[in-house]
Specification:
By secondary structure, this protein is α+β, with helices and mostly antiparallel strands. The protein has two domains: about 1-145, Multidrug-efflux Transporter Regulator, Chain: A, Domain 2, CATH 1.10.1660; about 150-215, Winged helix-like DNA-binding domain superfamily/Winged helix DNA-binding domain (Arc Repressor Mutant, subunit A). About 45% of the residues lie in helices and about 10% in strands. The protein has nine helices and six strands, in the order αααααββββαββααα. The chain has helices spanning about 10-15, 20-30, 50-65, 70-80, 90, 135-145, 170-180, 185-190, 195-215; strands at about 95, 105, 110-115, 130, 150-155, 165. It has a four-stranded antiparallel beta sheet. A two-stranded antiparallel ribbon has the order 5-6. The protein is elongated and about 70 Å long.
């Protein structure tokens, strides 16, 4: 999926999974769920999360909304890891009961929904469709990522703080370099599917203006 190339800021994550910035910071400090792309390194630096992190946080957020504390969520993760589930919030399918009261996981060993509140407890959900947490997150993410094209940004701690195309991790320097070597826009887009024609033009223009400024100040 295209979102896999992205790094998500705390503001992005908060909007996508329903946890506040303060909650995200607390979960990171207490080792419940931490960002995998960039850790917090002090004032001026951002926590940056991957799509896998988003899945974990969305599952945890659903549990939090139903009264599970962060420490209890952490114990659940450890209990599932002890049972052989690597990265359980990603590798296991998590669902919500139709009445919204319970988060369940589908254990492939028993082929039954299991309660998130008690690892060994088989759940008996109503005979209605269960809401898949990951699918719901992907739908929300697709809408969230309808980004404006043709914009350049720079995020401290991402790609060495080098300018990148907004909403991606692709440096403008790399795009402009390929254009200077004779790559057509079509070839660049084939190499970087998330980009648009406007993104390529913005990257080339950004690097050109940067060289002009450096020449004037040299």
């Amino acid at each position: 999926m295209r979102q896999m190339v992205h790094a998500f800021s705390q503001d992005d994550v908060s909007a996508l999974v329903g946890l506040s910035r303060r909650q995200l910071e607390y979960w990171d400090r207490t080792d419940v769920i931490s960002p995998s792309i960039a850790e917090y390194e002090g004032r001026g630096y951002q926590r940056l999360y991957s799509f896998r992190d988003l899945i974990k946080l969305k599952v945890g957020s659903e549990m939090r909304q139903r009264g599970m504390t962060p420490s209890r969520i952490r114990r659940l993760i450890l209990a599932l890891e002890e049972r052989g589930f690597a990265d359980p919030f990603v590798s296991i399918r998590w669902v919500v009961e139709p009445d919204g009261k319970e988060v369940l996981y589908l254990d492939p060993a028993v082929e039954r929904p299991m309660s998130a509140r008690a690892v060994d407890q088989v759940a008996e959900p109503m005979d209605l469709a269960l809401r898949d947490i990951k699918s719901g997150l992907e739908a929300t993410l697709a809408e969230h990522m309808r980004r404006p094209t043709g914009q350049v940004t720079s995020i401290r701690n991402l790609q060495g703080s080098a300018p990148v195309i907004a909403g991606t991790r692709i440096p403008t320097e790399k795009i402009a370099g390929l254009a200077e070597r004779g790559w057509t826009v079509g070839r660049i887009l084939a190499a970087f599917p998330p980009l648009t024609d406007e993104d390529v033009a913005a990257a080339v223009d950004h690097e050109r203006r940067g060289r002009e400024r450096r020449r004037r100040t040299a």
